[in-house]
Design goal:
Two copies of one chain form a homodimer.
Chain A lengths: L4 E4 L6 E4 L2 E7 L4 E7 L4 E5 L4 E8 L2 E5 L2 E5 L3 E5 L5 E5 L3 E8 L7
Antiparallel strand pairs in A: 2-3, 3-4, 4-11, 5-10, 6-9, 6-11, 7-8, 7-10
């Protein structure tokens, strides 16, 4: 990313990163930004990755567990997940979430 | 950030980073995430910083100029601003924006 970009999500293809998790992904030099639509009842099992993760909810309710602590995230809530921390969660309703990962998720490219 | 965090924006004090730009700031190990409410008509002059910046609009219309190119950002639009690129903009309506900076904005702490 040496040149600036103006873009619209309409032009980003949707990718199903886990069953029921539909992502639009943007990779900068340093981060991956993940705009996710999740169907109610979809869940992602506990997992770990080396990337630091910051997540927040735009719409709906998502139950997140990090290292054994659980919180229902609704608009206004956010969470910070250090690299290698165990986490996972379930959509209690249809949701829209944003994740920011650092460094870039090469596995999502 | 060695431990995970669940937090709510209600508990983050608002900071006026420029006239009419009210921010709620979160610093991770690698990034600063900036949730901004901007009053219609407020503008931020052209400026540069070493931080890479990713911005998108949650509500409203924000006219952004980067290196001489101008685009009105509405929900669905985003922009990527490389480090040291000249940029600035104006709120055409009341807006809610999100900026992600890498590395951390030490000047915003």
């Amino acid at each position: 990313m040496n040149k600036h970009v103006f873009g619209n999500f309409d032009h980003i293809p949707e990718k199903e990163i886990a069953p029921g998790f539909l992502s639009k992904l943007i990779h900068t030099n340093s981060n991956t930004i993940n705009f996710i639509t999740v169907k109610a009842g979809s869940s992602i099992p506990l997992h770990r990755h080396m990337h630091e993760q910051y997540s927040f909810v735009l719409e709906g309710a998502f139950e997140m567990t990090i290292e054994g602590d659980t919180q229902v995230l609704t608009p206004g809530w956010y969470c910070l997940i250090p690299g290698h921390a165990e986490h996972g969660g379930s959509a209690l309703t249809d949701c829209r979430l944003v994740d920011v990962f650092n460094p870039v998720r090469e596995d999502y490219k």
